[in-house]
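TASK: fixed-backbone design
INPUT:
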């Protein structure tokens, strides 16, 4: 059976079976580094789907970002939720949107349980995780670099991974679809969820590329995110990352 939450953990490189931290969501990290995902050295079962996509999109011409190790002490939902909530909180408090340059970024704040950042139940978790996965895959296709031949190569790679057939079917279906910002934005049922969908997209994209910038601009507009909040979301993700 398709398990969006588990697949999201594997996309990012975290352990879906770990215990949830107090006050938050998700699980502890599997110890994998995000740069390994991007470089195809670990992550999704025996391979790295997110890494394979990013590697093909980047074409080896740009160095991918990697998440700081302490950022991977969260499950996929908790990681994205924490990044989005930090940006949201800083935006609400009127703080400047800036990247915090430090060797060990501070732990991400756990979104309060009574906010839309935190899923209401297991079904809500699945819906949110599905939306995040769809956002990540769409972002990875944003520059149009995945042509038919490259798509077949990715299908072959995913086909050989130790994934449930339903998980593979979801990935294949999303990869095969035309890029659709409207479909990505459908998961944003609240402004808080809109911030989470944007944060998930940032994790799977080279935000400095021209095509990617255009896609993110369209996505932000469709999600109705204020420019200042968008700047905070970029700063939040960048502060949890380090250059590979």
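OUTPUT:
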């Amino acid at each position: 059976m398709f398990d969006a939450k588990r697949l999201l953990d594997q996309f990012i490189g975290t352990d879906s079976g770990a215990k949830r931290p107090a006050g938050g969501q998700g699980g502890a990290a599997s110890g994998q580094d995000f740069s390994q995902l991007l470089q195809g050295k670990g992550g999704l079962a025996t391979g790295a789907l997110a890494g394979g996509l990013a590697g093909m999109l980047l074409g080896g011409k740009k160095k991918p970002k990697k998440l700081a190790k302490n950022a991977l002490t969260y499950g996929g939902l908790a990681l994205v939720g924490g990044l989005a909530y930090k940006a949201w909180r800083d935006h609400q408090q009127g703080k400047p949107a800036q990247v915090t340059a430090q060797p060990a970024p501070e732990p991400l704040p756990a979104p309060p349980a009574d906010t839309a950042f935190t899923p209401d139940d297991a079904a809500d978790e699945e819906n949110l995780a599905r939306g995040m996965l769809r956002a990540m895959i769409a972002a990875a296709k944003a520059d149009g670099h995945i042509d038919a031949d490259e798509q077949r190569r990715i299908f072959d790679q995913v086909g050989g991974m130790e994934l449930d057939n339903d998980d593979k079917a979801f990935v294949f279906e999303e990869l095969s679809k035309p890029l659709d910002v409207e479909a990505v934005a459908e998961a944003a049922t609240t402004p808080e969820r809109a911030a989470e969908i944007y944060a998930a997209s940032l994790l799977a994209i080279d935000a400095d590329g021209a095509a990617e910038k255009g896609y993110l601009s369209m996505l932000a507009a469709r999600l109705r995110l204020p420019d200042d909040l968008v700047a905070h979301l970029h700063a939040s993700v960048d502060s949890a990352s380090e250059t590979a």
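COMMENT: The longest strand covers residues 65-67.
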